[in-house]
Amino acid sequence: MIKVSDLKKDFPIFDREINGKRLTYLDSGATSQKPELVINEMSNVYSNINANVHRGTYVLSSETTAKYEDVRNKLKEFINAYSSDEIIFTKGCTEGFNFLANSICKDLNPGDEIILSEIEHHANIIPWQMVAEKYNLKIKYINITESFNLDIDHFESLLNSNTKVVSIVGESNMSGMLPDIKKLNSLIREKTNAIYIVDGAQLVPHRKIDVQDLGIDFICVSGHKMLGPTGIGVVWGRKELLEKLDPVYGGGDMIEEVFYETATWAPIPHKFEAGTPPYVEAIGLGAAVDYLTKLDMKNVEKHSDELRLYAKNKLENIDRLNIVHTNSNLAGCTFAMSVEGVHATDVSLMLDTFGVAVRAGHHCVQPFHRKLNLDATFRATGYIYNDEEDFDILSNTIEESIKLLT
Ligand SMILES: Cc1ncc(COP(=O)(O)O)c(C=O)c1O
User: Does this model's pTM top 0.70?
Assistant: First the structure.
């Protein structure tokens, strides 16, 4: 069980007041707050052991390298990868998609198809659009139903022998939708030889993930949304697929041998990590993984589910508030909302005066906002350090804001 009042003490930021009020932070969908453990671990590296990784034979470099490489083992355990060599460090989920799109698609043929969904984050749209233009590929989008879920029949109808990539969000940062990843996987395997990628930016911070059980090929992960620092993310991929992929970035550390005319690549994971990696950030992410592992991801999941139901009930009772939230029993604690006649930014500015931090805009899901005829929404997302009181404050201050703004 997560006891939020105790847990909050691990996060120094909650000592702050905003506009003379307690901080009600409901923007973890954008980035999570950081526990002292993560901050101290990074500070410890800079203060006590800092040296570049994989470079020196001296004590400091060996210690930093060992710590950096050990994070791969922690992540392997965290998502149940087959091997720690399958953990590739990136600078975030967005970089993960750019790497996969560029590396996978250069071997496809004109006319090959990529399937995304209508509710994808721009990080899982733009890299595919860029490579689709370059290699003459076709992008198809799975329809989203009126209750903000994937239209599975439509998905099935899109699958054919030209489908080479399917890349779908694991937990929507807009509607909280949690697609049935295993079911999608069996449909893909039944009808295609496509590569199946999951956008884990919101999923991995909130749910216990087992990539072997899910049967997927790749997952892109964002470190800063799961208590880790910015500038670090992960791509996990099946070893046999990673071994076949070419690197996208070239430079130091990713090579085996270099000649003036040509070069050979280091084995995975290093062939994908050119240059000095963000090793301090990776070590910070390792501390975040330790923190979440100690809490137990099953407890994190339970907390998210209970908080979502509480929040949903509260928010649904507010007059004039429209909520873009899936009607499924299982979903993320994410609520994108709008009030007719009032701009989302005005609501969020008003909420800020009460110490409530929510995000306003299109949350990098602009096509889906456009489809719903929404210019923008304001979005509240709950995480491990949020409790019922936060959503009481949110719903009271939304009601107050609607009165003041209309
Ligand atoms: C669903 C989803 N995918 C991808 C991203 C991009 O993640 P990153 O900030 O690590 O690049 C985000 C971040 O908002 C997200 O919510």
Answer: yes
pLDDT score of 56 = 79
Shared domain for 128 and 247, answered yes or no, is yes
* Ligand 1 and 34: CB distance under 6 A: no
Domain match, 128 and 240 both: yes
Supply the angle between the helices 59-79 and 279-295 in degrees, to the nearest 10.
Answer: 40
Give the pLDDT confidence score for residue 235 in this predicted structure.
98
Q: Which domain holds residue 376?
A: 4-28+297-405
How many structural domains comprise the chain? 2
> What is the tens place of the pLDDT at every residue in 53-112?
998 789 999 999 999 999 999 999 999 999 999 999 999 999 999 999 999 999 999 999
Test site for ligand 1: of 93, 368, 377, most ligand atoms within 8 A of the Cβ: 93
16 and 56 assigned to the same domain: no
Q: Domain holding 378: CATH number?
A: 3.90.1150.10
CA–CA separation, 102 vs 176, rounded Å?
28
Task: Write the CB contacts of 373 (distance below 8 Å, at least 6 apart in sequence).
Answer: none
Does the beta carbon of 395 lie inside 6 Å of ligand 1?
Answer: no
Q: Hey, which residues are catalytic here?
A: 364
220 touches 233 (CB < 8 A) = yes
Give yes or no: residues 281 and 215 share one domain.
yes
Tell whether the torsion through CA atoms of 171, 211, 286 and 244 is positive or negative. Answer: negative
Q: Report residue 240's pLDDT band, with 50, 70 and 90 as the boundaries.
A: very high
Mean pLDDT of 235-243: 98
CB distance 171 to ligand 1 below 6 Å: no
Model pLDDT, residue 55? 81
CATH number, position 110 = 3.40.640.10
The finding on whether 339 has its CB within 6 A of some atom of ligand 1 is no
The two tokens of residue 255 are 């090579």
Distance 46 CA to ligand 1 centre (A): 27
